[in-house]
Amino acid sequence: MINNFDQTPPSRPPEPRQRNGCATAFMLVVGGILLIPGVLCAILNVKYGAGSGSDP
Question: Fewest CB atoms within 10 A around its CB: which of 18, 33, 40, 49?
Answer without folding.
Answer: 18
